[in-house]
Amino acid sequence: MSSKIYVGNLPYSVTDASLKSNFAEFGSVSSAKVMMDRETGNSKGFGFVEMASLEMAQAAITALHGMSVDGRSIVVSLARPREENGGSGGYSAAGYSSAKRSDIGYGTGGYGGGRY
């Protein structure tokens, strides 16, 4: 079973290869990926490392969390699973409704609906 590690506050100079080599001293690294901005191609400052076992991942987390890399204190922790948001592009199924706000009189907005 592999364990995924989140690595945050990375300097923008860190690459996939350098990230992998930093974690390789703690065990077998399945993959290492620095997340990149689609439009600019620059690093987003965080990445993920997948290690072969949970024990290796814990050893790497303990040793590297808070370590200074190019003047930045990196954050290393177990990655949380991605939250499912329904894939609706950020909009809820309810659409645009006034979420039962008490400061608005009556209606749901639109022409004359709110008190603005």
In short:
By secondary structure, this protein is of the alpha+beta class. Helices cover 17% and strands 27% of the residues. The strands form 2 sheets. It has a 4-stranded antiparallel β-sheet, with helices on one face. Strands 4-5 form a two-stranded antiparallel sheet.
How would you explain this protein's 3D organization?
The protein is α+β, with helices and mostly antiparallel strands and 116 residues long. 17% of the residues lie in helices and 27% in strands. It has 2 helices and 6 strands. The strands form 2 sheets. A 4-stranded antiparallel β-sheet has the order 2-3-1-6, with helices on one face. The chain has a two-stranded antiparallel ribbon with strand order 4-5. A hairpin with a 6-residue loop joins strand 2 and strand 3 (43-51). The mean pLDDT is 83.
Rg, Cα atoms, Å = 21 Å
Which percent range fits the helix content?
10-25%
The coarse overall form would be: globular
**End-to-end distance, in Å?**
56 Å
**Strand neighbour order, sheet with most strands:** 2-3-1-6
Residue ranges: pLDDT <50 for 5 or more in a row?
A: none
How many individual β-strands? 6
Look at the structure and give the mean pLDDT: 83
Structural class, judged by helices and strands? alpha+beta
H/E series, N to C?
A: EHEEHEEE
